[in-house]
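Let us practice reading a record.
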Amino acid sequence: MATYVLVHGAWVGGWMWRDVSRALRSAGHEAFAPTLTGLGERAHLASPGIDLDTHVLDVVNVLRYERLEGVVLVGHSYGGMVVTGVAERVPERIARLTYLDAFAPFDGESAADLLGAARAGLFIRAAKYHGDGWRVPARKDGPEGERFTDMPLQTGLQPLAVRNPAARGLPRTYVLFTAKPATDLLKPVMARMAARARRAGWDTRDLPIAHGRGEDSGAVARVLQALA
């Protein structure tokens, strides 16, 4: 049986993996779903100093303190930045990296770089005018809206160093969510990430669900188990 560590994306928390974690555990796997600092139930820790390094260390410490080895490390959306950084630090603890409709950065890239100047500019302006200059306000619409929390801006602006040869050799899978509406700002971004993964020789798969806010947890759990 596999050990999964599930890393959420922006504005949410470990709670988003509740149903996926339950499905994995019911199939006999282990599943950990940490909440990144400043988000979800850890929103009271939010501060201007939180950056990508903070979130990478959050997950590195889960692997170290839980003494996890042979982990299937999964990142959704912004979580792709985090899992890439974790692999740079502790590749020896990871069996596979899995990107669920997620950012897949190269050396020196930030999430803002991958979004592109126009899309990133929307979030930067939102932080400037509505988030005290350091947090990107969360949209509170939808059935889970009250659980969304503001995102520290520096997590999206800090570039990631991707230079560890031991991490470069890890097996990687990219799962593109193909049911995003045409109006989704991330649709072209994630299509570009999937194309990048194919060119790099990764295992790539399509899953006909939308990017976030209620994606089919059963479908996600099934594709994750297929990678175990």
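A brief commentary: The longest strand covers residues 94-100.
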